Amino acid sequence: MTDQKPYGPPPDAIPLSDAMKEYLPAEMWEEHARATEARKNAPKRPSYLSMSVRDWQDAKDSHDAANRTRSARADLHRVWNGMLAAMKARLEAGELTAFGQDDPPFGPWHAIPAPAWRQLRITNVRKGEASVGANIVHDIHILPPDADDHMPTGTPGRPKKGIDIIRVEFQRRVDAGEIADSLAAEARALQAWYRETYPRRDCPTTKTIENNLRDTWRAVRLRTA
């Protein structure tokens, strides 16, 4: 037994589902409630297997009922997608900060950089999941504005200063074909990005960034040579 803190998001971070209730406008939730009620009250499509022969009017009425059901379902889908887009916009703008795991339940937690939400898609609010391609971030927690963003690290001493965040941005730059011609230049670019994106946090030195990315940098250069 030790007194080390377990891995996890910052203490003030709350699950994604709770954050949506907290930070999306009440008007959105009211519209969602109306759409949910309309979907619930929409006429059910009749089962033709259990029906006797009916005349043309009965068949037409059944067809109209089915169309109303599809319309109510589509409206609820539209409202919910709008809410997801609004939450994603706040995360992309950096108004809220998200934390998650790539490899639960024992993998380390990391902050999700605001620019990453340009590609990430929220796929399951209840489970707190977002994805881009085959990559899934699990158990997403949201940190309220101006809250303490220090994360438990599982080891004594200071938390790592942004290296996990910088790794994610580096991978985004690799995927977008934006990396610099040298590791030193790439470290300077990443440091400048970090300072602009997270002005309230301590920033790693360029030497620290180079040391942490050197092996990955070499592997990327070999692939692209």
Tell me what you see in this structure:
- 48% of the residues lie in helices and 12% in strands.
- The protein is of the alpha+beta class.
- Strands 1, 2, 3, 4, 5 and 6 form a six-stranded antiparallel sheet that branches.
- Helix 2 packs antiparallel against helix 3 (56-92), helix 4 packs across helix 5 (183-197) and helix 4 runs parallel beside helix 6.
- The chain is elongated.
- The protein starts with 13 loop residues before the first strand and ends with a helix.
- The model is unreliable at 1-6 and 153-159 (pLDDT under 50).
Précis, in short:
With 225 residues, the protein is of the alpha+beta class.
How is this fold's topology laid out?
Elements: E1 14-15, H1 16-23, H2 26-41, H3 56-92, E2 97-101, E3 109-112, E4 121-124, E5 129-132, E6 135-143, H4 163-176, H5 183-197, H6 206-224
Antiparallel strand pairs: 1-6, 2-3, 2-6, 4-5, 5-6
Helix pairs in contact: 2-3, 4-5, 4-6, 5-6
Radius of gyration: 24 Å
Helices and strands, in order, run as: EHHHEEEEEHHH
Strand % is 5-15%
What shape does the CA trace take? elongated
Multimeric organization: single chain
User: Helix content range of the residues, please?
Assistant: 40-55%
Structural class: alpha+beta
Major β-sheet annotation: 6 strands, antiparallel
Number of strands: 6
Count of DSSP-assigned helices: 6
Q: How many angstroms does the end-to-end distance come to?
A: 48 Å
Unreliable segments of 5+ consecutive residues:
1-6, 153-159
Q: Give the averaged pLDDT, no decimals.
A: 79
